[in-house]
Amino acid sequence: MEAWCHAYAIDFSLNDANWISFDDILKKAPIKTYDKEEFLKNNRNIETSDSINAYLINIKDFQVKEDASPLSFVKDDIKALIINKRKLALIQENAKNAMEQALKNKEYEIY
């Protein structure tokens, strides 16, 4: 299947460990739906086409927005949040140290 995809597919993902947003799939494939959750419940194998391409989609599992996201799907977001929190703590600590140093050396002005 992978060799066939490399030879003929414009875009593909065979790694079922990666979660993909359904909105990302909708951007790439001509699928019309009004209720995403209901569509996913009833359609696990999707075959559709447009004038140029054929689209073959197999949905192994899905989760709705109210459910907790899989770790692999939000791992990068969690890393970014932790790094941002550490940056903010470092900035606050540096500001506090700078103020203490200025007070100690009497290098400040009160406005």
Primary descriptors:
two-stranded antiparallel ribbon; 2 domains; mainly alpha; elongated; 2 strands; 4 helices; 111 residues
Give the structural class. Answer: mainly alpha
> What is the number of independent domains?
2
Classify the beta-strand content into a percent band: 5-15%
Strand order of the largest sheet: 1-2
The global form is elongated
Order of helices and strands: HHHEEH
Individual helix count: 4
Task: Describe the fold and architecture.
The protein is mainly alpha-helical. The chain has 2 domains: 57 residues, no CATH class; 44 residues. Helices cover 50% and strands 9% of the residues. It has 4 helices and 2 strands. The protein has a two-stranded antiparallel ribbon. Strand 1 and strand 2 form a beta hairpin. The protein starts with a helix and ends in a 6-residue tail after the last helix. The mean pLDDT is 83.
Helix-strand layout with pairing:
Elements: H1 2-8, H2 22-28, H3 36-42, E1 45-49, E2 54-58, H4 71-105
Antiparallel strand pairs: 1-2
Task: Write a brief structural summary.
It is built from four helices and two strands; from the N terminus they run H-H-H-E-E-H.
